[in-house]
Amino acid sequence: MSTIPEIAVALAPILLQCAKDRQRITYGDAAEAVFQLGLVDKRPSAFYNIGNALGTLMEALHAQYGKKLPPLNSLVVRKKEGVPSDEAVGIRRYIKKHFQKECEYAELTWKERKELFNEQPIWPKVYNYPDWDNVLSEYYENQTGKSIPRNIPLKYDKDRNSAGNYGGGGEGPEHEALKKYVLKYPKHLKSLLKQYNYRARINNRPARIAEYQFPSLDKADVVYIDPKKPVVIEVKSSISDYHDLRRGIYQCVKYRALLESWIEARDIERDEELHWVPQGKSPSVTAVLVTESSLPERLQKVAKKLCVKHVVVKVPRSRSSGRKSTRRP
To answer: Is pTM beyond 0.70 here?
Structure first.
């Protein structure tokens, strides 16, 4: 049976692929991957072998490259909780150094660990580290005398990777349900948008449009059409984490700028799609982020600074699909 140091070497190409794909993998799937790829002679146990091997790998990398490396081993997570084991090497030290936050990771509850990874950009720091290829290639070649395997097809837990990795796929059912609810029931935004005409209609239809496409081909989740005060809306469902909520704020800023720019250029382009804007008028656009949960205090301050309005709207259970999301929140 392969030793812990041998399993550590086998994990190097797995973690390199995870970092390139901007994905996280469970302990069990990592154990299966090193076995199926023939990197070990027997399938290692998910927690004992893989956990200890990850520690061995990180200690070897720290010894060679110093403590500057982000915690690459944090990309291997427990299936149920979606975060690393309480014995993951280097995570506490990294959090304290880079986020000025004293944290005995092993002493936190699983809920607190999930909150920690949602609130601090630990995974993005790992994904964005530019030199993983050189670091892991050199380590692997020094240990085996071979080139590190590349382009490995891995099984990822899509539920765990749907948010916060800055590269999720299409819309999941939770996101779709919230978008449709906001489209159909604008009354939930009435206190926030006091000047908006909720009875406005275009061609005998409510002046609210889903998947509103701009000339840049970007699409806002919902746009409320109002000649005096148009509104662009981005929605983030209950499964969105800190990073996805943060992204939603900046999406609102982008869509607001796109619509205002389009309106400014309308007379030059003679764009009929903006027929609802009065001739010679350039109304200011309101940007709104709709979420199913409250924003963390830091993001509330960001939204206020960037003039993005925020409202919490909960989709009634009967209107939601109730299915687990496999894609973007």
So the answer is: no
pLDDT per residue over 261-308, tens digit each?
998 888 787 767 777 777 777 888 999 999 988 888 889 999 999 999
* Beta strand 76-77 pairing with 201-202: unpaired
